[in-house]
Design goal:
about 80% helix, about 0% strand, 8 helices, mainly alpha, about 110 residues, globular
Length: about 110
């Protein structure tokens, strides 16, 4: 559980490369664990991911979109995405020039309404 908190700190304070790597790690660590995804919301991990969705860095956006798409099926995470304005960020990325970012944004939005 402590690893999720450490990754959240990196997402807040790291440079873009570290943030991007941390977003991918969050996706992988939390992907099959509602417990860890809920812990991510408790330690404040959602706002940094939303911030990364709004970044000008393509790789950072892509990895944040991947993480969000993989975690939105958790109700706690979804609630935080909605409250934090993440839905608008995902909608904006639907027309991103980076096809992978747009695809992950579409998947994330689709899972929000599923």
């Amino acid at each position: 559980v402590g690893g999720v908190e450490a990754l959240t700190v990196i997402c807040r304070l790291g440079d873009n490369f570290l943030k991007s790597t941390a977003a991918l790690q969050i996706k992988m660590v939390c992907a099959n664990s509602d417990l860890l995804t809920t812990e991510l919301t408790k330690v404040g991990g959602v706002p940094p991911l939303i911030s990364m969705l709004n970044s000008q860095d393509t790789l950072l956006q892509r990895h944040a979109a991947q993480a969000v798409a993989g975690l939105v099926m958790n109700q706690d995470f979804l609630n935080e995405i909605i409250v934090g304005g993440g839905i608008a960020s995902l909608v904006t990325l639907l027309v991103d020039e980076d096809v992978e970012t747009a695809t992950y944004s579409c998947i994330g939005l689709g899972r929000c309404v599923a």
